Structure formats: structure tokens, C-alpha cells
Amino acid sequence: MKRQKSELLLYTIQTEILPRLPIKSLGRFQCVCKQWKSFLSSQEFIKLHKSRNKEKFLLLEPSIRAAKFHSFDCEPHYYPVTTLKNVPFEVKRKNALLLASLDGLVCVGFKNSRKLMFWNPLTGAYKYLSNSKYHAQAYVPYSDAIGFYNDTLNDCYKILHVNRKPSGSCMAYIYSQRLDTWKKIKFLENAQRFSKHQHWSPVTFANGSLYFTIQGSQGERLTVISFDVNSETFKEIQCPSGAKKCTKCTGRLVVVNDCIHLCVSSGMIRDSYWHYELDLWRMNGKEGGRRWSLFP
User: Fold this and answer.
1) Please, which residues have CB within 8 angstroms of residue 141's CB and are 6 or more apart in sequence?
2) Where does the F-box domain start and stop, copy by copy (predicted)?
3) Is 96 exposed, middle or buried (0-12, 13-18, 19+ CB in 10 A)?
4) Residue 228: what pLDDT?
5) Which residues of the chain have pLDDT under 70?
6) pLDDT attached to residue 73
């Protein structure tokens, strides 16, 4: 009877208490015994912790004057708490860019070396992404698209890198965190139309796909590009018809209630002045039947 109660207590601690603790506290419990150390490092516990621990943090870019960063606790029932920490890796002034984040991990890009890195701001762990013959193109700041996603089929994190050449052609690559390798994949047909003079937005991940927008340098011709992480294929999605009626527009993708939304700032000249409106469009339907509707 005592053994059953002891086993039940241990099971309750491992499945109900530990998954609710912040990551900082978990490191101390790895010293309790070998069983706990193994359990806390397992993929099973990582998935359980992600499902139970819903704390939200906002990470700001490293300071211009020093290699530091700020994190904000954004939970609604707390007052925002700011934490200032040192960056654990060597970084020069204005050199690091925070390109994407997922499950507490951050993809960092460096302007000078054009290298990419995985970084966990809570634990301080980081790892530079390797290069290979399939990924000869270095990351170009403000020009390339970088997407971060979790491959649930192979249980690993992956990076999508779409590289634009000066000629206007585009090459796409995928990095596997588990294999530590890159592979080349096919981008859209006739990609030359997405020239270097067009603006590519940051990449957003939702419901098994990555999304980003492409538009002309003068604010015209807004297009949404999707990437299915399972089939590893790209598709072009037309922007909402209402966004085409303006003279100048800017679009950004956001996730609201697990759905992709396009935030469009549109402008037209009336009475010799620019007049701007802000609309939020929700994308409905699945691949092959995408439809846009004004939100709410």
C-alpha cells in the first residue's frame, strides 16, 4: 500500500507539478535523481511542459549600445516585468537580428558574418547552424525570408530560408535541427517576378504552414505566399479584393485565435491629402479554397 501511494505521489509530481514550473526552476530538479534527470530531458516532458506552461514573454532586440536584451512577462494578470540580461554569445554593436521565434527558441541572424543561430534566452544555450553544399547562400539581412517551425512528423525544429539573388531568382532551403543539415527545395514557378526591389515581410507560422507577404517597393501588388511544412511546397494566395482598390497599401500577417489574419494599411489621395485606413482580414478555408473576410 505504501509503495502504491509513493508511486502515485511520484507520478503526480512528474505529470502535474513539474510541467507547470518555469524552465529556470527545472534545472535544480535534475539533481534529485537519475530518473528525474532523464525524465526532465525527454521529449515527452518537453511536450508536456509546453502544453501546461503558457507564460508569454516578449523579447526585444539587443541594445544598440551593449550586447544585452530585455524580456517582458506579458501575462494579463501581472504587471509587465522587465528583465535585462547579457547575451551569452559574442555580438558586435547593431550586428544581431532576431528573425523568428518558436516554443521559446529564437533564430538569430548576424549582419556581418551572415550566419544563423538557434538561441534559448531562458537557459542561455545557443548553437550556430552548420553550412553544407546544399546551402551555399548566406543569409542576407532585410532581403531574405526566414521561417521557423516544428516538424511534428520527425519531431524536430526546422528553418526555412528563401534566398533572393540580385538577378531576381529565388532559392529555397530547409535546415533540420535533428540532422544538422540543409537541403534544397523548389520555390514557386516564375519567381523572377519577385525581384530584389520588392519588400518581403517577416514569416508567420500557423496551422502547419508558414506565411509571408511580398509587395512592390511603392506599396502596390500585395501577394501572400504560403509554405506547407508537411508537403514542403509553396503556394501563392491572392490578397483580399478590398486591398486592391487603394493606391498604396502595406500588409502584415498576424495570428489571432489560431487563424492567419492580414493587417492592411491602405491609403488613397483625396483632396490633395493622403487618407489611410486599417483593416484586418481573416483567411478562411483550406488549401485550394482560400477566402478572405473582414474581421470581426
Assistant:
1) 97, 109, 111, 114
2) 9-49
3) buried
4) 93
5) 1-7, 22-24, 27, 41, 43, 50-85, 93, 132-137, 142, 195-197, 216-221, 242-250, 267, 286-289, 296
6) 59
C-beta separation of 69 from 59 below 8 A: yes
Helices (H), the chain: 2-12, 23-29, 34-40, 43-52
C-alpha cell at 239: 490578397
Long-range contacts of 24-32 (CB under 8 A, 24+ apart): 24/122, 27/123
Cβ neighbours of 245 (radius 10 Å): 10
CA-to-CA separations, 43 to 15, 38, 50, 98, in angstroms, rounded: 13, 10, 11, 26
> Sheet of 170-176: strands edge to edge?
145-151, 156-164, 170-176, 181-185
- Grid cell locating 204: 508567420
CA separation for the pair 148, 160 (Å, rounded): 6
